[in-house]
Amino acid sequence: MRTIRDVMSKPVVTIEEDKTVVEAAKLMGEKRIGSLIVTREGEPVGILTERDILTKAIACDLDICKLKVKEIMSSPLIVVKPDIT
Q1: What DSSP letter does each residue of 7-42 carry, written as one string?
Q2: In what order do the strands lie in the sheet with 14-16?
Q3: What is the pTM of this model?
Q4: What is the pLDDT of residues 39-51, one digit of tens each?
């Protein structure tokens, strides 16, 4: 039986919560991914998805050049152990 580890993306791409949404969008584009784990001092605190950017920032006409990732990320982060099937 396959585990979470078998299907998870490696390495996990992260961004600090104080970075701007435009920085996050650029990183997603460079890495060709749809989400980033958001960190505070290296610890995971949330997740930012393409959907978060569209529905919480762009659709609300917010300035993504100034808006911080922590202002629109989804939190708390729900995690599972990599060895779970």
Answers
A1: HS-SSPPEEETTSBHHHHHHHHHHHT-SEEEEEETT
A2: 14-16, 35-40, 43-49
A3: 0.85
A4: 999 999 999 999 9
Q: Backbone phi, then psi, for 20, in 5-degree steps?
A: -80, 160
For residue 9, pLDDT over 80 is answered with no
Q: Classify domain 4-71 at the CATH superfamily level.
A: CBS-domain (3.10.580.10)
Greatest distance between any 2 Cα atoms in the chain: 46
Domain ranges of the chain: 4-71
Residue pair 13/27 in contact (Cβ under 8 Å)? The answer is yes
**Number of neighbours of residue 3 by Cβ within 10 angstroms:** 13
